[in-house]
Amino acid sequence: MLVFIIPLKSPQFSNSWERVTQLFERCIKSVCNQTSANFRVIVVCHEKPKIEFNHSHITYITVDFSPANETNPVAKGDTDKGRKILKGLIYARQFCPTHTMAVDADDCVSKKLAKFIQQHPDSDGWFINKGYKYQEGSKYIYIKRNNFYKMCGTCNITRYDLNYLPEAPEYNRGYGYYRYYIDHGKVRDILKNKAKAIKSLPFPGAVYILETGENLFDNSKRLRFSIFNRKLLNQSIRDEFGLYKLQQFS
Questions:
Q1: Predicted confidence (pLDDT) per residue in 177-228, tens digit
Q2: pTM metric for this prediction
Q3: What domains can you pick out in the chain, each with its CATH number?
Q4: How far apart are CA 129 and CA 147, in angstroms?
Q5: What angle do CA 68, 189, 119 make, to 5 degrees?
Q6: By CB neighbour count within 10 A (0-12 exposed, 13-18 middle, 19+ buried), where does 60 fall?
Q7: CA–CA distances in Å: residue 77 to residues 55, 163, 167
Q8: Which residues, in sequence order, are bridge partners of residue 140?
Q9: Of 39, 122, 157, 214, which is least surrounded by CB within 10 A?
Q10: What pairing do the DSSP bridges indicate for beta strands 156-159 and 99-102?
Q11: What is the pLDDT of residues 64-81, one digit of tens each?
């Protein structure tokens, strides 16, 4: 079984909680659109978002973590994210997952993931080398042919034991304590050094949503692609990733 972990930022640290909620609702619909029912979703949040979508495979965990004691706002946000991912991974144990995947709350994922993992229960895992990048409202989508996992946090699927969970997890530590769960681009090499090499997922696994107004990093430069990597956002891609256009609001 594949368990998705979605860390959701708090209203306190959102530029627009309404926007965060919209993005999250699309994300959770995408995650739950799997072609196999052999999955669960754990959302870790300070406040449960008010959305209309419900699914029996979703579990919400609310936390009251204090803001991270970091001077850099990006490190502060990353630490909060790391705490929530760790919390979700610990909770996931009760579902006896074969694999877990952290998903950023504004991204979309392929509906083929759960079925693929179900067919390979003993694998060490996969990293998404090829995926898509999308700017909200565009009629185009961009293919990222290599190194998708280095830029997008929705990228690693690991066998549950390879999360290397601490026996007594702590949720009041600094950035370094949660680094393994945050530095998504380094997981592949870390596991390779432990002789647990994860493989490249054999199909595009996720859509990285850019310039939402809620990204931790200014990622507008990551839309500067060659025109040869651009294609029309067709219905097939929309259906596979649950990528629909969000309503506008002021």
A1: 999 999 999 999 999 999 999 999 999 999 999 987 665 444 555 555 567 7
A2: 0.94
A3: 2-129+145-207 (3.90.550.10)
A4: 5
A5: 100
A6: middle
A7: 28, 21, 24
A8: 232
A9: 122
A10: antiparallel
A11: 998 877 778 888 899 999
